[in-house]
Amino acid sequence: MTTSDTSHSPAHPYTREMAMIHRVFRRESRLLAELVQDVPASDTVRAGILAEHWREYTVGLHAHHTAEDEVLWPALLPHLDLDAEQVLAMEAQHHELTGGMCEVQVLMDRWRARALAADRDELAEALRRHHRQLCAHLDEEEREVMPLVGRHVNDEDWHAVGERGLAETPRNRLMIALGAILEDCPPDERREFLARLPLAARVMWKLLGQRQYRRETRRIRGRHATA
Q1: Could you tell me the CA-to-CA distances from 227 to 42, 68, 204 in Å, in that order?
Q2: Average pLDDT, stretch 73-95?
């Protein structure tokens, strides 16, 4: 499926930051389907690793959508008239995505128990459907709604969205989350993003975070891991 080219993100910092976050969910949802499909029958250890990664992914996606529904959209809607329909459509799509993720979770739990080939194949197809549905939603949000955010949402409200997401990220996963955001960034975008972080976070990333993220991706992705 063709998705938005986030390497040419709009210049507004809000829309650029949102595209960086969306890039993570596009990548990880695609990889989950590929990784599950590669698991040999009866390999319950590998199934358990990927089931846990799916859990972490869903926690992150739910936190992202909740921050939009409870912080970003309420800040945006008072400024809109007919365009409000586009924002309300985003909320509806969040509910639809949650329903699909619940279906995946049922299949994931069943596959994790015995790692049967038939269960694996059904799960991988459900994950591919989730990826397509998610990408369609993110494409529409970036195309239709983020320009409205750039015009109408102020720095304080945008900062509140980020703080909400940060608060819902476990402290021991902060470097993992940072690595996920930085992984596919062009060099200039990466430098700019790191420059906005507190000094302590930049030092932590350099000394510990990069190695922690590499270990995590190798454990989860196996042969799919990049250098």
Answers
A1: 29, 33, 21
A2: 94
